[in-house]
Amino acid sequence: MTTQEVANQLVKLCREGKNDQAIDELYADNVVSREPKGSPMELTEGKAAVKDKTLRWEESVQEIHSATCSEPLVADNHFSIVMYIDATYKEHGRIKMSEIAVYEVKDGKIVADEFFYRMG
């Protein structure tokens, strides 16, 4: 898959709420995932660990009121999307937030992602 094809498929699956399928299909086994500095999940390495991180996030959510993402912006082997979510979290209440996600693609798989959002 080209970077554009990976980006389009990720956006499609995210909009359908199929995060696990996106990881299974699009992520490399040795993926590196980064969250903002100071986050409890600041660095996650490996597809299994990324799936676990996603599961822990899903378990922290009481209700998702809305969630979507932008069209991808592609440059060479990188792409970015903006993600929007309005959710009620079990420990933090209702939060509306947006984040920029940047992905690196190699050999048709996502080998790195990094998320940028305001903490706190």
UniProtKB/TrEMBL annotation:
Under InterPro entries, the record lists: NTF2-like_dom_sf, SnoaL_5
Name the record gives this protein: SnoaL-like domain-containing protein
Task: Name the Pfam families for this protein.
Answer: SnoaL_5
The species this protein was found in: Pedobacter soli
SUPFAM superfamilies from the UniProt entry: NTF2-like (SSF54427)
Provide the SnoaL-like domain boundaries: 1-117
